[in-house]
Each structure stands twice: as C-alpha cells, then as structure tokens.
Amino acid sequence: MLTLFLTAAGLKTFAQADIIPAKAQDNKIAIMGAKLHIGNGQVIENGYVMFDKGKITGVGDATVAKFDLTGVTVITANGKHVYPGFIAPITNLGLTEFESVKATLDFEEIGNINPHIRALVAYNTDSKVPATLRSNGILMAQVTPKGGTISGSSSVMQLDAWNWEDAAIRKDVAQHMTWPITPRPRAGFGRAGELTPDASKERTQALINELDGLFAEAKAYADTDKPAVINARLAAMKHLFEGKQKLFITADSQKDIISAVKFAKKYGITPVIVGADEAYLIIPFLKENNISVIVKQPHALPNNNDDDVNMPYKNAGILANSGVDVVVSIDGYWQQRNLPFMAGTVAAWGLDKEKALSTITLNTAKVLGIDKTTGSLEIGKDATLFISGGDALDMKTNNVEKAFIQGRDINLDNLHKQLDRKFSGKYSAEKK
Fold first, then answer.
1. How many other β-carbons are positioned within 10 Å of the β-carbon of residue 231?
2. Where on the phi/psi map is residue 151: left (φ > 0), alpha (ψ -120 to 50), or beta?
3. What pLDDT is attached to residue 432?
4. Which of 232, 338, 371, 390 could form a disulfide with 116 if both were Cys (CB 3.0 to 4.6 A apart)?
C-alpha cells in the first residue's frame, strides 16, 4: 500500500513539479560570442554581456574587447542570440488561472468606477501560466484589471517570484479607463431591445459627463492638503494629476481617440492609447500631442467592413515609421506566450526587425516608466535577458535555452514541458 502511494505521488510530482524561484545571483557571469539584440535598434554580431549582482556591467563587441575572466562563469553562445527580456503589456496574467472556473477569475470588480482597485495585491505567483511565458522570453508583465469604465491600477511584475511583493518592479504604474464608444451608424433595421441612434448617443454622452464629474472632483480632492473626509476612489487618482501615474485609455475609432486625448489633456494628463485600430488615420494628431500607442495583437480581423484586410498587420508599422511610439500587445493571459510572434508579424509587414523588437522591449519599458532599469541590454540596467538558439520573433526558430531575471538563473521548465515528457515517455515505452 505504501509503495502504491509513493508511486502515485511520484507521478503527480513528475507531471506537475513545483518550479521554485531562482536564488539571487552570487557569481559574475559573461555570455560570449552571441548576436546581441540590444533592444534600441542596435545589433552586435559577435558580442558579449557581463553581469554581476543582478546588473549588467559590460556590453560590447567580443572581437575587440579585452577581458579579465578570473572568477567569472562563462557561457559560450556562438551562433546564438541574446535579447532583453520581453515585456507583456495589458494582461490579466496571474489574475486568472482557468477561464471556465469562476473561482480562479480575479481580474474584475463589481461596479463601473473602480480607480481604487489594485491588480498588484491579487497577483498569484503560484500560477502555472507565467512559467509557460518565460519559455518564450516573456520575463515581465503589466498585470492589469479589467471591466467597467475605470478598472483600477496596473503594476509591472517580473515573472519569477515567491510573492507579489518580490515580483513587483513598479507598483501602480497606471490607471485604466475604457472610453465610452461613439455609436456607429448601422444599416438596416435594429434588433429587438437595441437602442435607437439618438438614445445610444445620449447614453454615451451621459458616461462622458460622469467621467468629467469624477475627474473634476478627483482633481479638487488631489489639490486639498487634508481632506475632511477620506475618499478611497478619489485618493487613488491623486498620482494621475501629479504625473506619477499614467492614464491608459482604451479607444479604437479615430473620433474616440481624439475625444479621449482631449479629455485627458483637459486635466493636464498625457494619456497612452490602448487598442488604437484607427490610429493610423490621425498620426499628425498623435504626434502633436506626444501620444504613445499600445496596438492590439496584429493577428486579428479589421473592425470595419471597408478596411484593408491586412490593416491589423500593418497598423503598428505605419505608426512607428511615422514617428509614433508604439507598443505591441496581445489579448488574454496564457496567449501572452505568443507575444514575440506578434512583433515578428509586425516586422513582416513593414517595420524594421529591430524596431519591431523594441515594441516589446524598450518601447514598452518607456511607456511603463521602467526604461531606466530594463528594456535593453545596457550597462547599469537589470540583467533581465535570455539566450535563444534562433530568432526569438519567429515561432519556428524561437528556442529559449537560458534566461535570467535580475541576474538570477531562472528555471525554464513548465507544465507544458512536463506533460510532454510524461506522455512522450508513455508512448515511447509502449513502442518498445
């Protein structure tokens, strides 16, 4: 009986082994001979990266540099690629585990206006999903709440930690708002229960008026030194007006984007636009107002019937080539593992390959306000990087062999790999 129990326990461990966060870097490491993709558009064909105590201490051309490698652990990476860790923006990663199990969904709160909600404290470091992302080079994520007109604040997390306190890179980086959608004219007869165009416009305007009242009240609250009554919702918005927190507004149509930007500017806030399906139609406006854009995943269908069917592929390239700061995103949480291939698609549709890389590295870091510590392979920044056997933006050649988060040599195992080993072993045994 004891033997059977141990066997069952052993199988369970084999299939779902715990992946323990890596310990702090305790020795100097040098990666030699790889092709370095710096993240800022620069490439070093035969380069080196050195890091110590979690920080990059050297980057350059290995063919001309002189080294003292005494006491240094050397990783030979000839013919391989080194990238800064990819950053996944706008994701409910760690806030949900099984889409079909309600008890595991913790990314949305009741109510329409929730600026006081913090995704940070709900982040689950025991989730099985982040490990699957790390295996494709995604080492950081902007964990974001959803739902309502104002969803709450997001935080940037690194994906190898014991708890959310250890995981946090930057707390409460942004507030998230969904701009009320301007009704579009519809052909034919309306469906039962559908609002008339006039009623729909009135509802949209009522939502905008509600937002206007909220922001005016929050601004007044922020300007008050010692409010007589503490209001958690208004207090949560204070950093928006101080410039310490960003405002991410989801808007797709050109009219909605313009309205959202003007609304934010009214309160002294320069927003980041999320979604931005029609941003390519108002590029001068975006540049004039210094607006950064987080585009939806390129693997999508166009919103409008008369749009170019390839526009979702081209949108990021058109914007970036015109001088707009662009970040590429992908919906959901487990889907984030495909983020590098979204950037690869952007590169295939008009954007330089290294600039496409920047849309998931340095550009993202700048939008999130963490570019001084991460997003590129530069001296003084965190040693959050990985080695791939091939082009990491190509799903055929992406092969992450080793990864480091703040210099820590992280475990690249995950549940998918464990199940592959388990069932590969099963069928191999049957053949024998």
1. 13
2. alpha
3. 64
4. 232
- Among residues 173, 117, 104, 169, which one has the least CA distance to residue 146? 117
pLDDT at residue 330, rounded to an integer: 93
- Asked whether the beta carbons of 327 and 296 are under 8 A apart, the reply is no
* Per-residue pLDDT reduced to its tens digit, 97-122: 887 787 787 777 888 899 999 999 99
Contact 4, 31 (CB under 8 A): no
**Which amino acid belongs to residue 73?**
T
Distance CA 260, CA 212 (A): 11
Ordered domains of the chain (ranges, CATH): 18-85+375-412 (2.30.40.10), 87-179+228-370 (3.20.20.140)
CB 407, CB 386: distance < 8 Å: no
Which tokens sit at 17?
Answer: 């082994």
The pLDDT value recorded for residue 399 is 96
d(CA 173, CA 144): 10
Q: How far apart are CA 249 and CA 176, in angstroms?
A: 6
Nearest Cα to Cα of residue 85 among 403, 410, 415, 432:
403
Intervals of the chain under pLDDT 50: 1-16, 186-189, 192
- pLDDT for 305 equals 83
| 36 Cα distance to chain centroid | 22
Question: pTM for the full model?
Answer: 0.90
Q: Beta strands 28-37 and 72-76: pairing type? A: parallel
Q: How far apart are the first and last CA of the chain?
A: 29
